[in-house]
Every structure is written in structure tokens, then in C-alpha cells.
Amino acid sequence: MAKGTIRYWAAAKAAAGTGEEPYDAATLAEAIGAAALKEGRNGDFRRVVERSSFLVDGDPVGTRPHASVRLPEGGVVEVLPPFAGG
Predict the structure, then answer these.
(1) Cα(50)–Cα(20) distance, rounded to whole angstroms?
(2) What is the pTM of this model?
(3) Taking the CB of residue 49, how many other CB atoms lie within 10 A of it?
(4) Which residues contact 76 (CB under 8 A, 6 or more apart)?
(5) What CATH number is given to the structural domain containing 39?
(6) How many domains, the chain?
(7) pLDDT band per the 50, 70, 90 thresholds, residue 54
(8) Among 42, 47, 39, 33, which residue's Cα sits nearest to residue 77?
(9) CA dihedral 7, 9, 19, 1 (to 10 degrees)
């Protein structure tokens, strides 16, 4: 297990009810799964996260399965929902 920070942006921040929170997880899937179970989170959080892109310490996760993305100790996960506009 690694400890680090999840940062939420735009709609993800609104759905999470916070701009950032700690993680204690080995993989991205574990971290996001635990975040979804936090008190007060509803289906909006899951819907936003399912459409979001992720960076781990600045590196894009892309299409890799989240269960295969190992999280580093002291790392930062960025949750980036789709952005509108141009």
C-alpha cells in the first residue's frame, strides 16, 4: 500500500465535495474505489470519475486498466473530467 494525494478538478471536485484527499492504496482502481465509498458520495461521483482521465505524478494513465496502474508512495493522482469549451 502506498500513501499519496488525489486531486480533483472541475466537475470531479464538485462531485467529490473536496479539491483533494489522501489515498492509501496499491493501485489506481483501489484508490478510486475507496474514494467512491466515502460518506456523502453518490452516483454523481461515480459517473464523473468513469468519464475522467487520470494522471499519476504527471504521467497520463490513458487506456491502461486502473487495476494495473501501481501508485507510488507520496504520489499525486489527478482526476480530470472532460472539459467543455474551446
Answers:
(1) 18
(2) 0.93
(3) 22
(4) 4, 5, 6, 7, 55, 56, 57, 58
(5) 3.10.20.30
(6) 1
(7) very high
(8) 33
(9) -20
